[in-house]
Specification:
Layout lengths: L1 H14 L4 H23 L1 E7 L17 E5 L8 E6 L8 H8 L12 E4 L17 E5 L24 H14 L7 E7 L1 H8 L1 H7 L5 E7 L14 H13 L7 H4 L21 E6 L3 H8 L11 H5 L6 H18 L9 E6 L10 H4 L12 H9 L6 E3 L26
Parallel strand pairs: 3-5, 3-6, 6-7, 7-8, 8-9, 9-10
Antiparallel strand pairs: 1-2, 1-4, 2-5
Helix pairs in contact: 1-2
């Protein structure tokens, strides 16, 4: 920061001696310097790795390209520990919505950027990530549209859509096992949003890949999607999830402890799976999850007149009646959370009352001086204490707007956020 201040001070007088255009160039340059500083302190870039061996196994993205991940190797005492973070990005529930994703980064590794920033739970500095900074940290890219559950053998030549999420997951795990994960002493399967759902659905099978002596747990960030009616009284999300499972032929890859009791589509909801999940699990979720409010509670199909648009853009713009509805949704979420089961040592949760979605991958919400707190703990501290069995953590925040540590999301009012990510 001292370098930035010196440059800004030195250039203050200079800007008065040059024309306006030159001053603009200088300000742009200084802005770049500041952004570089922020990246260097709160994140760093990691190159992409393509899993070419997955193609022969049929483990490919929607467009048939090989899957990919980004890996920063562990060091020191963490060299035998592995943190797998699954990328989020919604789902596709039919041929039309899957075609819309096929030629994007959510359906093709050809469209993925070559480097991604690692911060938060993926950071490599103890100051920003004290419990996992020296682990092998991997961010798995998401390109199948089914939370890595699909497996359809046939490929329609007219669409060239490959529904192979389950094979993608296994091929990536095989690749990581060959690179040392088979000798893991400690491991975490984690993820954000659809990736958080992945970490729940694959939790037990992930643990089964590793040595029985390894300490293995799972972490789901903003992945606890609930089966609730929208503002028009329709069970919209239940229908969509059923279509996702049918399109990707996911039923056979969902936890049998659930599919033996319920329809496969219902087993895409964490509340119907976590009760029989054997592996230790921690949930990080906002009770007013911004994605769920926008797409489950008040999707565009249920809000024909757009009365929820401003509210979904900025929670401070919600009317008293809308806040009342959202408080009801919070109670539904907490009731669904009751199905978590297990003991405080095996089940942990950090449920704050923020209008947010995904809080472990960004430094500001994972661990910083101004990060969200529950019982005086950051998310990083709560997760670390729980994983290492230092102390259990099961905390639920008071209702909105009591929590002043929240980083509430504010969306661009000019962009329509009413459409569901399917």
């Amino acid at each position: 920061m001292y370098l930035v201040v010196m440059i800004m001070t030195a250039n203050k007088n200079l800007c008065t001696m040059v024309n306006a255009r030159m001053a603009q160039h200088l300000l742009f340059f200084l802005g770049c310097i500041f952004l570089i500083f922020v990246v260097q302190t709160e994140g760093f870039y990691v190159p992409i790795t393509y899993v070419q061996s997955a193609v022969a196994k049929g483990g490919v993205c929607l467009d048939g390209s090989p899957p990919a991940y980004h890996m920063d190797k562990g060091f020191g005492a963490g060299i035998d520990n592995w943190l797998i973070q699954i990328e989020g990005g919604g789902w596709c529930n039919n041929v039309t919505t899957c075609l819309a994703r096929r030629d994007t980064r959510l359906g093709s590794s050809k469209k993925m950027i070559k480097q991604v920033a690692f911060s938060g739970i993926l950071h490599n500095k103890p100051k920003f990530n004290p419990d996992f900074y020296n682990w092998n940290r991997i961010k798995v890219r998401y390109c199948d549209g089914s939370s890595f559950t699909g497996d359809v053998e046939a490929v329609n030549p007219s669409t060239n859509l490959h529904f192979r999420g389950q094979r993608v997951f296994r091929a990536i795990m095989d690749d990581l096992m060959a690179k040392g994960m088979s000798k893991a002493k400690m491991a975490i399967l984690s993820g954000c949003s659809a990736g958080g759902l992945t970490s729940i659905l694959h939790c037990d099978s992930f643990k089964g890949l590793l040595s029985p002596t390894a300490k293995v747990k799972c972490l789901a960030d903003a992945g606890y999607f609930i089966n609730a009616k929208d503002v028009s009284g329709v069970q919209h999300i239940e229908q969509v999830y059923s279509e996702v499972v049918a399109t990707h032929n996911s039923a056979k890859n969902l936890p049998q402890s659930c599919t033996s009791r319920l329809k496969p589509g219902l087993c895409f909801f964490p509340q119907n799976v976590v009760g029989t999940t054997k592996t230790d699990l921690f949930l990080v979720n906002a009770a007013y999850d911004s994605w769920q409010i926008k797409n489950i509670l008040a999707p565009g199909v249920a809000d024909h007149h757009g009365t929820w648009h401003n509210c979904k853009t900025d929670i401070t713009k919600c009317s008293a009646e809308q806040l009342k509805v959202m408080q009801g949704y919070r109670m539904e979420f907490l009731n669904a959370l009751n199905r978590l089961g297990g003991s405080p040592t095996s089940r942990g949760y950090f449920v704050n009352s923020c209008y947010a979605h995904c809080q472990t991958e960004t430094q500001e919400t994972w661990m910083r001086s101004d990060s969200p707190l529950l019982s005086g703990k950051t998310i990083a501290k709560a997760v670390g204490d729980w994983f290492y069995d230092r102390t259990s953590f099961q905390k639920i925040d008071c209702p909105y707007p009591c929590d002043k540590t929240c980083h509430n999301r504010v969306f661009d009012g000019q962009v329509h956020h009413d459409s569901i990510d399917f």
